[in-house]
Amino acid sequence: MAIDRDAFFWQVQDGKLPLPRVASTLGMVITKVQAEDGRLDAEFEGKPEFANPLGNVQGGILAAMLDDTMGPALACQLRAGEFAPTLNLNVSFLKPAKIGKLRGVGRVVRRGKDVCVLSGELYQNDELVATATATALIRRM
Q1: Is this prediction's pTM over 0.70?
Q2: Domain boundaries, given as residue ranges, for the chain
Q3: Which of 23, 67, 78, 108 has its CA 20 to 30 A from that of 115?
Q4: Strands across the sheet with 86-93, in order?
Q5: C-alpha angle 107/128/46, rounded to 5°?
Q6: What pLDDT is attached to residue 20?
Q7: How far, in Å, CA of 27 to CA of 65, rounded?
Q8: pLDDT at position 136, please?
Q9: 9-67 per-position pLDDT tens digit
Q10: Whole-number mean pLDDT of the chain?
Q11: 1 pLDDT more than 80
């Protein structure tokens, strides 16, 4: 698989475009990309402002972290002018996430011509806190 360095994902990775604002808000740092396998590892910062009344990271924020892990796992495979909005996102919360670092793993489970199936996990201190699956649709501008 040839990487298209003109694609949005790689333009961001090469520092030619800024990180999307939502990724910055989530404190996202991509730590590993395996484009040929459609796998991406990232770290996030569970900030105090993300806490629910019990002091845990709110579930919607965890869902956003998972979406921002799975989406780029696919985006690293796209060509310039392609994008892949999420059509469906299913999240399972397994354990409360505390304020602090979280690690996301996203992967492309199946890539069709247009429809793709994605999966992801979110860990804190090597313990699984949430999982997700998603469907994304490749579109061309």
Answers
A1: yes
A2: 20-140
A3: 23
A4: 29-34, 39-46, 100-111, 115-124, 127-137, 86-93
A5: 90
A6: 96
A7: 9
A8: 98
A9: 999 999 999 999 999 999 999 999 999 999 999 999 999 999 999 999 999 999 999 99
A10: 97
A11: no
Is residue 33 within 8 Å of residue 13, measured between CB atoms? yes
What are the backbone angles phi and psi of residue 122, rounded to the nearest 5°? -125, 130
Whole-angstrom distance, CA of residue 88 vs CA of residue 109: 14
Q: What pLDDT score does 2 carry?
A: 83
Tokens standing for residue 96: 């409360």
Is the CATH number 3.30.1540.10 carried by domain 20-140? no
- CB neighbours (10 Å) of residue 38? 22
Q: Encode the chain in three state secondary structure.
A: CCCCCCCHHHHHHCCCCCCCHHHHHCCCEEEEEEHHHCEEEEEEEECHHHECCCCCECHHHHHHHHHHHHHHHHHCCCCCCEECCEEEEEEEECCCCCCEEEEEEEEEEEECCCEEEEEEEEEECCEEEEEEEEEEECEEC
**Locate tokens 């989406």: which residue?**
71
